[in-house]
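Researcher: Hi, I'm a grad student and pretty new to this. My advisor asked me to get structures for two proteins we've been looking at. I'm not sure of the right format, so I'll just paste the first sequence and hope you can take it from there.
Model: That works fine. Here's the first sequence with its structure tokens right after it:
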Amino acid sequence: MSEQLINIDQVARRLGVVRTTVTRHLPKLQAKGLQKVELSCRAVRYRAASLDRLIIKAAERSEPIFD
């Protein structure tokens, strides 16, 4: 079984926001647990499981994902 890697557009879609919002808040999202995987110097993906954990943790604590 392999882990699912998603691009920034898919991250935005899962969060229900536009790509620029994710890009603007990327450092905060990574600090909250979004894991980045660099495939090459220009190809970056994110671990879907880490995004799921971030969403669940925010929901459990009733905290906004973007502050």
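Researcher: Oh nice, that was easy. Here's the second one.
Model: And its structure:
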Amino acid sequence: MEKRVIDIGSRSLGFDVAVGSLGTHKLIQEIDQRLKDGCSCWRSDQVERRRGSRIEGRGLFAKEPIGTQNVISIKGGRIVNEATIRDMTARNVTHGSQQQIGIDAFLVGLTPDEEDVNLVGYNHSCNPNACITLTEESRIALLVTRKNIKKNEEITTDYSVSQMSNTQRFLCNCGAKNCRGIIQPRYDFLHKDFQKTYKGEFPRYIQTIIDDIDNLSGDERKKLLMSAWFCEQAGKIAILVEEIRRRQKQEVKDKKSILKLQQFLLITCINFASRFPPELGNEYGVNKENLKKFQESIRQNLTGIIEFAKKLDSEQGWMNKSSTIPDAE
């Protein structure tokens, strides 16, 4: 696996001239000083990292009411590619603190100490009250409120709006009514309902891909999106298998949650195999003669179908393998 680091130099906002009120002048100086090491994030005095999140234990919270369209944090970092993020995650160096800023570019801290000062601290929600805005010239990420936020309210973003890499994929625990259940930024942004919800909030590098897909002919677009759907289901299966195994290894096992995930896995495998072409169905023993025989054939050949899904996910679910969603065969 490639371990190329694109840029590990220092980075600052580079403010040479400050204009406006004295308060604005002081704020600019504070931000510039905070970011000049190239890794530390800046957080507004209106927010704080602390425990108490129902989503993830620790989170980012408002210390006072905050209006919409307010910048509440700025994140810098070392710029690396996806292969480096995956390697750092495997070595337990980074823990999901990266922020994607381009097709194959991420802001991150390269050591545990750098990650600690680089981490803004917000969690994911499928009904977020904030969003990420990227400044391509300065290579930084701004956390901006998209709703009015109450005192002590947790501040969240939808990770799939500003990222299209599966280095940030997981079973969602946000509790929102519209929760997607499984978050896969590599595919989420391709769904029309998702695009409608977050219209105008996507960074340029994602919006360009959306526009390019929309400009394809009907048959080309259908073919690409079907291929992406197929890979998305494979990714769901890989995530569910990993989570089931993780929970089975725990000393105190939550048997009900494991059973629920196993049922979810079976349903996803059935959905996945329903789109198998005849030659693939024959290879994995899928019988589409009728619904009863089809479902039974999935149960009997579940291990093989799961292994195929994991292989497909490994080949197509990551950007360092392919920089765009693959075309269907």
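Researcher: Is there anything I should tell my advisor about the second?
Model: You could mention this: The chain has twelve helices and 13 strands.
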